[in-house]
Amino acid sequence: MIMTLIILGAYVAGIALGALAPALADQTSAATQPALMLLVFLVGIGTALDPSAWARLRSAGPRAIAVPVAVILGTLGGAALVAPLLPGMSLPDVLAVASGFGWYSLSAVMIAEARGEVMGALALMANISREVITLVFAGLMVRAFGPMAPVASAGATAMDVSLGIITIHGGREAGLVALASGFAVSLATPVFVGFFLSL
């Protein structure tokens, strides 16, 4: 939760600085692409250096595959259903925002680079909202829909920020599935965001 507040604070500070010094816009635009490449590169290194990453997928059993597939299909299906209600946004753009799967730091940068700052801000807020909703309503989700509900709601954040609250309300098995699902969905995020941005 602290990291979410830091990200939001940085975003608000960026808005303030942009309003006070519009000349910085050209410089920040030039820096966005290298920053994105560095972020993806560091994520790749982190994945390679994590010896337990693939073990997590195996330890969660069949649900390690079923849950992230359901998360991805459910997210994209839901986004496609609401897309006609969002005037001014194309279906590929709606699906690109949804494909952040809660990983706001990566998806917002990718989308801002391809579609501009307004779309990047929308991706940031949409994906932060996914994380916050999970943190606040995880207990209610478990009672209403079962222990996998907050895992699905958390998306990519199930393996880190949302893991604690998922384990508290859903139990140890839900925690294992959350680790595996979050890892798999995180791997899928740049692929799906990039694909929909290319359409």
Automatic annotation (TrEMBL):
The entry's keywords: Membrane, Transmembrane, Transmembrane helix
UniProt xrefs under InterPro entries: LysO (IPR005642)
Pfam families referenced in this protein's UniProt entry, alphabetically: Lys_export
GO molecular function, one term: L-lysine efflux transmembrane transporter activity
Record bears the keyword Transmembrane helix: yes
GO cellular component labels: plasma membrane
Organism domain of life: Bacteria
Transmembrane segment boundaries: 35-53, 65-88, 94-112, 175-197
Protein name stated in the entry: Lysine exporter LysO family protein
Organism ancestry: Bacteria, Pseudomonadati, Pseudomonadota, Alphaproteobacteria, Geminicoccales
